[in-house]
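Propose amino acids for all 114 sites.
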C-alpha cells in the first residue's frame, strides 16, 4: 500500500492541524505556510493524487469542494473575495500528492499569478 500523504495523516488525526470544517467528504484546515492572512486547504478525505488523476467517479467530491469553499468563506466573513488555487504537477509547484484546493483571502490579490 502507498504511504499516507501528510494530508491523509491530518484526516486520520495522526498529526494536528487547525481545522475549520469537516464533513463526510472533506476536511478544511489552515495552511502551515500561509501566503495570505487567510490560507486554507480543502482536502478530500479520499486521497485523489491530483486533478490529472481524477476520474468521473470523483465528480461529486470535486464539486463538493467548491461548494464548501463558498460556505467556509461566508462563515469566515470573506465578503471582499477569495482566490481558489489547485496546483497540478511540477510546473504548478504541486508539493503534496493529495489533491487540495487552496483558499486565499484577506488581502488584495494580483493577476497574473506568479
Ligand atoms: P501545494 O504546493 O499546492 O502542493 O501545496 C501544499 C501546501 O501544503 C503548502 O502550501 C504547505 C501546506 N502544508 C504542507 N505540509 C503541511 C502540514 O503538515 N500541515 C499543514 N497545515 N499544511 C501543510
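Proposal:
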Amino acid at each position: 500500500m502507498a504511504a499516507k500523504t501528510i494530508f491523509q495523516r491530518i484526516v486520520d488525526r495522526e498529526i494536528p492541524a487547525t481545522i475549520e470544517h469537516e464533513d463526510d467528504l472533506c476536511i478544511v484546515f489552515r495552511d502551515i505556510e500561509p501566503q495570505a492572512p487567510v490560507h486554507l486547504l480543502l482536502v478530500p478525505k479520499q486521497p485523489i493524487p491530483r486533478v490529472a488523476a481524477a476520474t468521473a467517479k470523483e465528480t461529486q467530491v470535486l464539486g463538493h469542494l467548491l461548494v464548501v469553499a463558498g460556505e467556509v468563506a461566508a462563515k469566515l466573513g470573506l465578503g471582499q473575495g477569495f482566490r481558489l488555487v489547485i496546483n497540478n504537477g511540477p510546473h504548478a509547484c504541486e508539493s503534496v500528492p493529495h489533491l487540495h484546493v487552496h483558499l486565499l483571502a484577506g488581502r488584495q490579490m494580483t493577476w497574473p499569478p506568479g
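Strands lie at 19-22, 26-30, 38-44, 82-85, 101-105. The domain at 6-105 is CATH 3.30.428.10 (HIT family, subunit A).
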